[in-house]
Amino acid sequence: MSFALAQIREAIGDEAALKLIEARGGTTVFVPCDPREDQLLVDIVGLDAARELASRWGKEYLAVPIAMEWRIDRLLEEGLSAPKIALALGVHEDRVRRRRRKVGAGGSQPDLFA
Fold it and tell me: 4: closest CA among 33, 27, 34?
């Protein structure tokens, strides 16, 4: 997992992070220092999450990762098939199968230090 993804997930949680990645992954997003209801960031992640982002990155541009492996892992954990995940994410199903083999059927990569 990338450092940027880890920071975003820590700041706003998995669900809001996923919304942000799905809406703006691979781009930069301006984080206002005082988010308001009429702003795009608030439309994407909600006011509380936007405020949390602002507390860390207010007045900055945030590089939103694509986070494809994490997104594949989440869908594998939900039990979706490789073809369904491939269609949902716009990747080849071989990529999904390789990821499943790498991390195991459960989805997330095992922690080597646990």
Answer: 27
Q: Which of 49, 37, 105, 26 is nearest to 72 (CA)?
A: 105
Q: How many CA atoms lie within 13 A of 71 on its CB side?
A: 20
Indicate the pTM of the whole model.
Answer: 0.85
Instruction: Name the token pair of 70.
Output: 């994490």
Q: Which residues are paired to 28 by β-bridges?
A: 63
Please check whether residues 23 and 42 belong to one and the same domain.
yes
- Do 77 and 57 share a domain, yes or no? no
Residue indicated by tokens 């820590």: 10
What is the per-residue pLDDT across 1-58, written as a single tens digit (0 to 9) for each? 788 999 999 999 999 999 999 999 999 999 999 999 999 999 999 999 999 999 999 9
Cβ contact 76:86 at 8 Å: no
